[in-house]
Amino acid sequence: MGEATARPLRADAERSVRVILEAAERVLAADPGASLEQVAAAAGVARTTVHRRFASRQALVEALASSAARRLADAVDDGRPDTAPPLVAMHRITANVLQVKGAWAFALEQAAEPSGEAADLQREVDRRCVTVLERARDEGLIDAAADLDWVRRVYYALLGETLRGDPAGDPDVLAARVVDTLLRGAGPRP
C-alpha cells in the first residue's frame, strides 16, 4: 500500500497523506470513477505528490479503505466495549460509528482484500461488537437465547438505514434510536 512504509512518515508527509485521503473520500463519493488528477486537484496538491504517495488509483483506494477502517476501529475502541456498562458502550459506539460511517461512506463501502489491513480491522470491529452484545446479554438487555451474530447483523442494518434516512442527524439522538430499536424493537411500550 502507498500509505504505510517501513519507516514512519515525516509530519508533513503524514499531513499530505491525510489531506489526499480526505479529498479522495469527497471526490470518489461524488464520482467513483474520478482520476488521481481530480483527487490531487481537490486536495490542493500536485499530481506528482499523489503519485509519489500512491503507486496507482487502486493503491489509493486500498489506503483509503484501510484509513477509514482504522477510524472505525478507533470509534469502537473509544466506546470502551470491554469495560463501559454495556448500554453506555452501545450508545457511545453507535454515535461514534455513525459519525465515521457518515464521513467515510465511500471508503467503508469498498470491498476489502481478504488478507488486507481493512479486512483485518473489520473482523476486529465485528469481534468487538459481539463482545458488547455478549455483555449486554449477560446484563439481561438481550434475550439469553438470541443469536448474537444475527443481532450484530441487524445492528449493522440499523446503522446503514439510519445513515440513509438521516445522514446529517445528531449522532447522539440517532444512536439512542438505533440502540432502542435494537434492544426493544418497534412494538408498543408498556
UniProtKB/TrEMBL annotation:
Using the record for this protein, list the coiled-coil segments as residue ranges, or answer none: none
Query: One Pfam annotation, family name?
Result: TetR_N
Keyword Transcription belongs to the record? yes
Q: Which Gene3D superfamilies match?
A: Tetracycline Repressor, domain 2 (1.10.357.10)
Q: Which PROSITE patterns match?
A: HTH_TETR_2 (PS50977)
Keyword list, A-Z: DNA-binding, Transcription, Transcription regulation
Cite the HTH tetR-type domain residue spans from the record.
14-72
Q: Please name the InterPro entries in this protein's record.
A: Homeodomain-like_sf, HTH-type_TetR-like_transc_reg, HTH_TetR
Please list the residue ranges the record marks as binding DNA.
35-54
Its recorded name reads TetR/AcrR family transcriptional regulator
Q: Which organism is it from?
A: Isoptericola peretonis
